[in-house]
Specification:
Distance between the termini of chain B: 68 Å
CATH class of chain A: Mainly Alpha
Shape of chain B: extended
Oligomer: heterodimer
Radius of gyration of chain A: 18 Å
Radius of gyration of chain B: 21 Å
Number of domains of chain B: 2
Strand content of chain A: under 5%
CATH architecture of chain A: Orthogonal Bundle
Largest sheet of chain B: none
Number of strands of chain A: 0
Structural class of chain B: mainly alpha
Strand content of chain B: under 5%
Largest interface: A-B, 73 and 84 residues
Number of domains of chain A: 1
Number of strands of chain B: 0
Helix content of chain A: over 70%
CATH superfamily of the largest domain in chain B: NADH-ubiquinone/plastoquinone oxidoreductase chain 6, subunit NuoJ
CATH topology of the largest domain in chain B: Four Helix Bundle (Hemerythrin (Met), subunit A)
Distance between the termini of chain A: 64 Å
Number of helices of chain B: 6
CATH class of the largest domain in chain B: Mainly Alpha
CATH architecture of the largest domain in chain B: Up-down Bundle
Structural class of chain A: mainly alpha
Order of helices and strands of chain A: HHH
Largest sheet of chain A: none
Number of helices of chain A: 3
Amino acid sequence: MEPVVSMECYLIVSSIMFFAGIYGFITRKNLIATLISIELVLTSTDINFAVFNRFLYPGQLEGMFFTLFSIGVSAAETAVAIAIIINIYRNLKNVETRNLKKLKD
Amino acid sequence: MQNVLVLRIIFGLLAAVIAVFSVMAVCTRRILHAATYLLFVLFATAGLYFFLNYSFLGAVQLLVYAGGVIILYVFSILLTNTDREEPLPLFSLRRWLALLATVGGVALAGFLLLSNVWPQTELPVDAEIGMKQIGHTLMGTQKGQYLLPFEVMSVLLLACMVGALVIGRKRS
């Protein structure tokens, strides 16, 4: 049976999202904006897991559970990263990446 | 036939929302706007999961991201009081190298995706997975079942909750 939308369409969408995240990760100067870019990268890999599971091995559930655990891990990562960012803000009064080396002093 | 056309239009809308808003989220100067665009991208991703008939996954995505993570982002943006990012100069070397790497990466990934021959499967690709099957898979200890990762995840969440409290508390 032919699927409604082919697998390549999903993969192209997720690769656009992945590389948008990479671009943001390189160019952004604010720590929170960098974290938002990382979130884009993680979500695009989640889409890939679900799509490969659905189109290549529809009888199994591995990709779906990898996505589930990956969502949990990225939520944990966000919580710790935001705690660190708030602590940096308390010490430096801003969250720009170029000021981070002042933390060593 | 009509149904297939409607489904394709819905997929096109979701794909356009993801592509446009993920680019806007990394290009806008206001961090609060970036968080809002990220929320739209995550909503459309949940829509893609529903589209793939992974309803449970879509519901988890909506709950965890829209309910938890975005709220964390908005609070941290407001707490750190840095809504406006100072602009990168238009002709900086870093921006152009990043743009080059990104466009090259998209082109390479697209070429590999479209030229690769994917293996075909005989099984139907749109069967909904029952909640009972998901529950048994999550709570079983046999091969292909995920009780151990589930418990490890709970320990990870506990550890990161304690870690976030310790890192984020005020030192007197």
